[in-house]
Task: inverse folding
């Protein structure tokens, strides 16, 4: 009866091990598909300018990844525990006669556990590497967009500065032209003044000789003085208007 009980215990352990292996196989297939879909969705959204949907999808996939990782790790731990119990059973005195067959079965379950563990860590490592790379690329793209937007603002500021600089240069040229006209007018008036003084000297000489001509010269001098005042006022007003236009 003890042998029958021991045999049933071994069969229960084998059934439990096969059950856990089947569950692990299904979980690993789903886990691999999740990682593949994560990579595909990342590649498909790489050219999308919208940030809301990718963040929601990636957050959901990350949660699924964490949940499935915990579930698979728990199944691996349970399968490891069953294998340990099977190893203990093979060491009992009652199983010595079947030790070779039992060890062969135990080794096969150990190989399956090792394969599943290796596949899980490989898939998980690939997923984490892809997520880290995509997060880095996303950060780089964000920095590029920020730089581009900042460059656009700087370009607009530069354009405004150039326009203001051109306006100041035009104002300087207008001021130079105004000053040149004023200087030319001053030189012309100085020349005319010398010419008029020369004529006045000759007229004064004649006036001293002829009193009637002296009265006529006085009236001419009064009109000349009045004309000079009017001309000076007109020139002053024109200069003020040009200066106001230049600094407008």
Result:
């Amino acid at each position: 009866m003890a042998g029958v009980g021991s045999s049933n215990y071994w069969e229960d352990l084998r059934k439990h091990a096969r059950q856990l292996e089947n569950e692990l196989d299904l979980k690993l297939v789903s886990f691999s598909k999740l990682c593949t879909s994560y990579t595909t969705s990342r590649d498909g959204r790489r050219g999308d300018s919208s940030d809301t949907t990718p963040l929601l999808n990636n957050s959901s996939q990350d949660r699924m990844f964490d949940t499935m990782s915990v579930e698979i790790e728990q199944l691996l731990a349970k399968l490891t525990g069953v294998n340990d119990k099977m190893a203990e059973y093979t060491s009992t005195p009652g199983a010595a006669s079947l030790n070779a067959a039992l060890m062969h079965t135990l080794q096969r379950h150990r190989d399956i556990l090792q394969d599943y563990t290796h596949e899980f860590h490989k898939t998980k490592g690939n997923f984490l590497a892809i997520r880290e790379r995509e997060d880095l690329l996303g950060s780089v793209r964000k920095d590029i967009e920020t730089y581009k937007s900042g460059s656009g603002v700087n370009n607009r500021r530069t354009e405004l500065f150039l326009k203001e600089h051109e306006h100041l240069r035009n104002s300087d040229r207008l001021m130079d032209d105004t000053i040149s006209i004023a200087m030319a007018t001053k030189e012309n008036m100085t020349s005319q003044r010398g010419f008029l003084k020369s004529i006045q000297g000759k007229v004064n000489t004649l006036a001293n000789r002829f009193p009637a001509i002296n009265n006529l010269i006085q009236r001419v001098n009064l009109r000349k003085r009045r004309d000079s005042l009017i001309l000076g006022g007109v020139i002053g007003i024109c200069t003020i208007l040009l200066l106001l236009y230049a600094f407008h």
Observations:
- The CA atoms of residues 21 and 79 lie 7 Å apart.
- The radius of gyration is 53 Å.
